[in-house]
Amino acid sequence: MFKQVNTDYISWIFLIGLISLIMELVFFDGGLIYTLALSIGCLFIGKKKYHRKIGKILFFIGVFSTIFIVLNMFVFKFFLLVILAYALYGFYLSKQNPEKVQLMLTEPNQNTEEKEQLIKTSYLFSNKLIGSQQTQKSVYEWNNVNIQRGIGDVVIDLSNTILPKGETIISIRSMVGNLKIKIPYDVEVNLHHSVVIGRAVIFQNHEKRMYNQIISCQTEGFNKAVQKVTIITSVFIGNIEVNRV
User: Fold this and answer.
1) Which of 64, 177, 206, 228 has a beta carbon 3.0–4.6 Å from 188's, enabling a disulfide?
2) CA-to-CA dists, residue 75 to 54, 222, 237, angstroms
3) Short name of one Pfam family for this protein (predicted)?
4) pTM of the prediction?
């Protein structure tokens, strides 16, 4: 049902919800700012000291208090009402114009090919909601990176691994956090970076203030290089730094 939603409608709903959140926090219930900040602080400290008993206690206090605050916020009720209204609207449309499914009967193929065997490969990073990640400081085996993240920093040092010949892919989508990528001098780079709020340092080029911008650039010898890296990143709030090592 949701795949048929117009993207413009989603954008407007998100914008209205964001404005409602700001108004609720600033004008109607300013105390929520401090309570929510305290809950998130407990989450971060608890996550960092999770190996200790006090860390576990702080982490779960942060989780339950954050959930309790969000459930009692007007913005949450607003989005819940929008989802319910759209679900009812979609149900109404489905009754007016039911989807027609046409069945095609075919005889079984006696010469059906055997199922193709797949080999699972390892990966450097996994999707993570909260917390920072970085490559090993010692030598490690490289695998392409394709991750989605919530809150936290990512550090990738390509000088401690052997890149394969051809194009290497690094794809990172993150909500809040900084990205730092270290590139060897003999490796060419192609970068596509999208950010809502942040800064960028790409080798000797600096972008101090970026608001809803896209950076697309590559080094001179990228197209002819034997070893090259394509970096595709998308960050809501955060900085990116790409440097030589």
Assistant:
1) 228
2) 32, 47, 21
3) LiaF-like_C
4) 0.56
